[in-house]
Write a structure and sequence with these properties.
The protein has a domain of about 120 residues: Orthogonal Bundle (Tetracycline Repressor, domain 2). Helix content is about 75%, strand content about 0%. The chain contains 9 helices and no strands. The chain is globular, with a radius of gyration of 17 Å. One of its GO terms (molecular function) is DNA binding. This is Regulatory protein TetR. Keywords: DNA-binding, Transcription, Transcription regulation.
Length: about 180
């Protein structure tokens, strides 16, 4: 049975959105295709109508997450007040505690380096994000790497006070 194009596209976007959320929450290896399809409200069998492999889904989910970041950066970095508000939200305990709704870079960078298809999507989107920051490229790289690294460290440590200190120090330095 063939579905209307619009309905098929909506299902495809739902799969990508749910995959992006689950991958950011648990990583590529700890999420199965069946889990993604269930989260999207679809059967496992429908997967191959949308993607050729889990790796293709990983690339699409990476691009989706990175494009969401690009949209937020482009919107917020346009003004000094927006830049500060973005950095404050990014370097927050809420973002730290909810990787599934946060930045793909902070959640998946260590895994993306091992995934060639996802890596290509990540690289292209990162270049767009750096351009959208609106600073000299070297400064944009420094800002992005500092924010992403701080979030990764804050998530990795077991000491709550130390985690908050990492976020606070970087937030203060960047704003």
């Amino acid at each position: 049975m063939r579905y209307p194009v619009k309905e098929t596209e909506e299902k495809h976007q739902r799969i990508v959105r749910e995959a992006s959320r689950l991958f950011r929450e648990r990583g590529f290896k700890d999420v199965t295709v069946a889990e993604v399809m269930k989260a999207a409200g679809l059967t496992h069998g429908a997967f191959y109508s949308h993607f050729s492999s889990k790796e293709a889904l990983m690339a699409a989910a990476t691009e989706y997450g990175m494009q969401n970041t690009l949209e937020r950066v482009a919107k917020n970095f346009a003004t000094p007040a927006g830049r500060k508000a973005y950095i404050d939200r990014y370097l927050s305990t809420k973002h730290r505690d909810h990787p599934e709704t946060g930045c793909t870079m902070a959640a998946l960078s260590s895994e993306i380096r091992r995934e060639p298809v996802a890596r290509d999507a990540f690289t292209a989107s990162l270049k767009e994000i750096l351009a959208a920051i609106g600073e000299e490229r070297g400064e944009a790289i420094l800002t992005t790497a500092t924010m992403v690294g701080a979030m990764m460290l804050a998530r990795a440590v077991t000491d709550e006070a130390f985690s908050r200190e990492i976020l606070k120090e970087i937030r203060e330095k960047l704003t």
